[in-house]
Every structure is written in structure tokens, then in C-alpha cells.
Write a structure and sequence with these properties.
Elements: E1 2-4, H1 10-13, H2 22-31, E2 33-37, E3 42-44, E4 52-58, E5 61-66, E6 72-78, E7 83-84, E8 100-103, E9 107-113, H3 114-123, H4 125-151, H5 154-169, E10 173-174, H6 178-185, H7 189-201, E11 205-208, E12 211-214, H8 217-221
Antiparallel strand pairs: 1-2, 2-9, 3-8, 4-7, 4-9, 5-6, 5-8, 10-12, 11-12
């Protein structure tokens, strides 16, 4: 992790601040900072679970949960201009979360630290409402993940995952290992490898080392 020089003003990055008084904006400007994370670097762990409100300026972050045995499941990813409110969850009443965040590529973020943001959100209801709205949006996404895990079959989850990676990356050629997919879906690598082999036999995908080419997206969407 490395702190870097700010590239734009806070108002450009967080438009909600245009509704705040100038003295508050000045204090936030004085406490906010930019960080650069390297590939694979931890952004949030269990010991440091409430740094502040974070916005991704470039790169991508993975938000995930990890069991005591080390098994992981990916909850969602954050890309350019996405805001991460879970890194500021201690600002919200009765929020006790245990999410981990890591950089999947070299990533630059802007951070509004909780040390001052806590007092600001208590003093200005419009700011607290903004944070609550961000939480609601993220929990809608988490609910969708939970529904996938509980109610969807693994073939359906895998097909949905491949399509999501295609939509986010804009390419049918995906640089993915079976191990990474298993981690993201909270499954075993052997299960993913077996399903991908079946998808290949059905001419839905083409497999090579650390690479998956999507051949028939329409049919992938139909997998139940």
C-alpha cells in the first residue's frame, strides 16, 4: 500500500458533498487520502475492518468472506467509480461485518477515513442517508449471491459466473483458472473442472490452460 497525491477534488468524486457546508468540506479534504494497492494486496482484513468510505478510481477489488478453515466465497467485485461502504460499516448502527477485501489488479482508491466521517454523518443526516443508501444497494447484491448459493444448482451458478465475467470484461476470452472460479463460487476445484469439461463437451466453452473461451452465451444463459 502506498499513499499518492490526489488527482481530483473530493466534490468531483463524491457529489453528495456539494450539499455539505464549506467548513465540513475543508475538514474532509484535509483528512481524505489516495492509496495505491498492488496485485494481491489486502485492502481490509479482520484486524482492520473499518478504514472508511472507499471509492475505486482504477483497477478492481474483490470483497469476500473466509471460513476458519480458509475456504472463501466471493461476494462481489468493485470496479472503477464503484464505492465501497462495507469498509466503513462501523459508521452504521448495529453493523457487525467480517468481510475481507483484496486488490485483484493494481488499484487506486480514495478513502474518507472513519475518524472524521463518523462525526460528520452524525451531524448531517443527509450524509448518513447517503451511507445507508449505499448499504442497501450492497445488501441487495449480497441477497442475490445468497439466493444463488442456496437455491441455484452449481451448473447454473457457474454459467452465470462466466457470463458475468464476460459482461464485466467485454471479451469472450477469459483468463481464469479453475482454482479461482472455485474460490469465487465457494466450491471445490474438482467440481468446477468437471462442470467445465461438461460445458466443453456440449460446445458451450473451449478450455486451455488458465483460459476459457465462451462459444455459446445464449445456451449458457439457458442452463438451469
Amino acid at each position: 500500500m502506498k499513499q499518492i497525491i490526489a488527482e481530483t477534488s473530493l466534490i468531483n468524486e463524491f457529489p453528495i458533498l456539494t450539499k455539505m457546508p464549506n467548513d465540513l468540506l475543508e475538514r474532509l479534504n484535509a483528512t481524505a487520502f489516495w492509496r495505491r494497492y498492488e496485485l494481491g494486496e489486502q485492502v481490509q482484513n479482520r484486524k482492520e475492518s473499518c478504514d472508511g468510505l472507499m471509492k475505486v478510481k482504477s483497477g478492481s477489488l474483490r470483497v469476500f468472506m473466509q471460513s476458519e478453515s480458509g475456504k472463501e466465497i466471493t461476494l462481489y467485485r468493485l470496479y472503477k467509480n464503484d464505492t465501497c461502504v462495507m469498509s466503513a460499516s462501523c459508521l452504521l448502527n448495529n453493523m457487525d461485518v467480517d468481510f475481507l477485501i483484496e486488490a485483484e489488479t493494481e488499484t487506486i482508491v480514495i478513502l474518507l477515513p472513519t475518524t472524521y466521517l463518523r462525526n460528520a454523518s452524525d451531524s448531517y443526516p443527509i450524509l448518513k442517508d447517503y451511507l445507508n443508501e449505499l448499504v442497501q444497494q450492497r445488501f441487495s447484491q449480497l441477497t442475490w449471491v445468497l439466493q444463488q448459493v442456496v437455491f441455484s444448482s452449481m451448473p447454473t451458478r457457474l454459467a452465470t459466473y462466466l457470463i458475468e465475467m464476460y459482461v464485466n470484461g467485454g471479451s469472450k476470452n477469459l483468463e481464469l483458472t479453475h482454482e479461482r472460479i472455485a474460490t469465487d463460487l465457494g466450491s471445490a476445484r474438482e467440481v468446477i473442472s468437471r462442470l467445465l469439461k461438461y460445458f466443453q463437451e456440449e460446445k458451450l466453452v473451449s478450455l486451455s490452460r488458465s483460459h476459457i473461451e465462451l462459444l455459446n452465451i445464449d445456451r449458457l444463459k439457458q442452463i438451469k
